[in-house]
Amino acid sequence: MRDVETYDLLIVGGGPAGLAAAVEARGAGLSVGLVDERPTFGGQIYKQFGIGFRVRNARALGRDYTRGRALIEAAERSGATLLPLTSAVAIRDDAVVLVADGEHARAVTARRIVIAPGAHDRPVAFPGWTLPGVLTAGAAQTIVKTQRVLPGKRIVFAGSGPLALAFPAQLREYGANVVLALEAGPRPSGRDVARIVRAARGNLELLRDAVAYRARLLRAGVPMRYARIVVRAEGDGQVRRVVHAAVDRAWRQVPGTEETTDADTLCIGYGFTPSVELLRLAGCDFTDAEDLGGPVVLLDEWQRTTVPGVSAAGDGTGVAGASAAVDGGRLAALGAALDLGAIEPHTARARAAPVRRRLRHKEAFRVALRPLHAVGPGIYELADPSTVVCRCEEVTVDQLAVAIDASADVSVVKGLTRAGMGLCQGRSCQRQIAALIARRHGLPLASVAPATPRLPVRPVPIGAIADASLEDGGFFTP
Amino acid sequence: MIAAAELRAAPPRATDVLIVGGGLAGCALAYYLACEGVEVTLVERGELNREASGTNAGSFHFQIALHQLTAFETDNVRDRLLTEVRLHAEAAAVWATLENELGAPLDVHVTGGLMVAETPEQFRLLHDKQEIERVAGLETHVLGPAELREFAPYLADDLTGATYCPDEGHANPLLAAPLFAQRASERGAAVRTHAGVTAVERDDAGWFSVTTQAGTIRARRIVNAAGAWANDVAALSGLRFPIRAEGLHVNVTEPRPRLLEPMIQHIGRRLSLKQSANNTFIIGGGWPAHPEQPPKRFSTSWESTAGNTAIAVRVVPALAGVRVVRTWTGVMAFTDDLSPVVGESALQPGYHTCIATTGFTLSPLMARLLAEHMSSGTRLPAGFSPDRAAVQPQPTT
Lengths: 478, 397
Known about the structure:
Oligomer: heterodimer
Largest sheet of chain B: 8 strands, mixed
Mean pLDDT of chain A: 92
Structural class of chain B: alpha/beta
Strand content of chain B: 25-35%
Number of helices of chain A: 13
Low-confidence stretches of chain B: 391-397
């Protein structure tokens, strides 16, 4: 806490949004610190190899890799201070507490802060979801991308959204044996395709990708089935069978449509949810949009949140993908440069114009796709009474039900059951519990307020936190 | 637990006793009054147990603490301390039998408690404190440095000594008040949430007419058990009590293999540390939280986490590698003279209070004493009158 460092702009999160923001802000002459908790920058989509890997043929690794590489190299060249292996664990006013290597906490101050935390897989609880062999798409992607390890021998993918096509196709590219891919949304109709093509202006690349992924799955003979979700995973100590069923538009199961597929691995990818812990701790205001992942921070035209000095960008502000994140990051940096007087308003507007145009096109495309992937409430209704919802504290649906009968308040339910008090700090169970509360009390999911935000947003060793220079401040002295 | 349907139902139109505040004091009082056959209604403005009663660290503080030792030498302070330590000994007896009484687990663990000293002066203070505890009838033992190292090898080996109280321990603050409320409800008490009090009037017959967000209730007697907000509620009746609100910050770690049995406090610095029933370490001791405007809760403070854990790791060095997972805050009632404010106001007969500074430790006992007083006219311990704010000049804070 004593070695205070300061930046014009501190960026938390070194994925597409954070990297782009760093480059743009350096271009405007701001001093920039860029923080990421992982050993390498790039975030999830532009994820780089683990330490110790060497790339011989970058082009063979595909567009996400090469784009990520280029952006990372631009950030390295930009003169921004890059701080890998560093977690942002607390924020208040203009100060962010950083923990480097899990060993030493320090407060860093900045005139402007951009929070670009990315997203994590939308957690879905169904019977068997805690069995070894069940993993999220993000986790599978991480081990495949950073370590070149396949998650299993017979893989079922179940999910929804653009990723439901992309991910099994990518896994297939790595040589994985994907035996079945399930998309919860409906099979696109002629009218859906026409609507999507109309929205394709400025998004041809995404459209081409989708076609290529579909072709790749067809070529590989991977059955792709629409309007089906996984309803449970079975096996003794390991996934052996995946049971899936047809669903209606609300993703509720159609009786009598269950089928079983033998598998040792089940990848779950029902979209992503923004990682908003730091934004909530900062005190930002939110709205809620399930198709953007749930909680969505309120932003103005320069990506400023409702907290002075704090902006946000990327999938952490609503899940829209890597290229939208890059543009959001640029806007946030331009806004910060404008606020700090580093660029003229007309320059900021001119530089923002093409960025905004691209973002409008992407938004139109996302809206066109939405009817196909709109998350149905049925996804939160799969758990049976004995299903564990909070894995850290091992709290089941029926234990939660007793508390939820007594109160519709997430914090009360948390207090009575310990659900959400464990190491994951509620990331895995909070939305599921909110959905249980909403259903029991007949409330819209969006109206169930999350638990009070508390520091630290990542677990931190006492040895890193403790600061003996902060002596007793006389709390008890009258 | 009481179902939401009951908690949110319309309150009774009339009741003998109306309790304002659904924390541990209010819920316990509702239970003890219901056990005595008194008609009782409890109203809470939010949810049960969400403030100090559910956000404190759950410790039983029976030994005289650092903050109580201010102005230690004067006679009236010595008398006050004697009174309080006697209460602590009684509270120990209440907690020891509470799970039996209420018929459900509250994670009560009588682990014993150490109060450590770092300097020779602090060690001398422990001796003086132990003498008062002995006179008051609370069992404590002074341990010298060598004894302490043998008794608690996980402590830093340069501490100068400690006192040990075998009756200290902890319970789960998340369970105690809700269980009292449930048992009260089963015995006929009406418990209502989302029923904040907005106005209090008195009719010609001397009954209180209390307007709440859930409806108007006529009551023969009122008990203000609103904790840190007691003076907001009292102001509706033109009263003021010697109580202020302080925000408190608590830290909790990931679970680790069993290391500590007793609770650990410090005679000279702000520390309370224990390993909970689920093996997490809970670290508090009176570090401040950032005040916020309602409805926001007081926010957590990095400085409090850093300062508080520094003392914890100074006393138990093995904590260095243990990760803090969460912190939280609570707003506690802090009485100006550190004594409980429990009893009936002579200024407004029928108006009662049930509030204490170390509320988690004392509330079940205070509630029981007040319930006995209200149902059978037994005498309350002297010096707790809510009117003392009106007759004594109060220090400005």
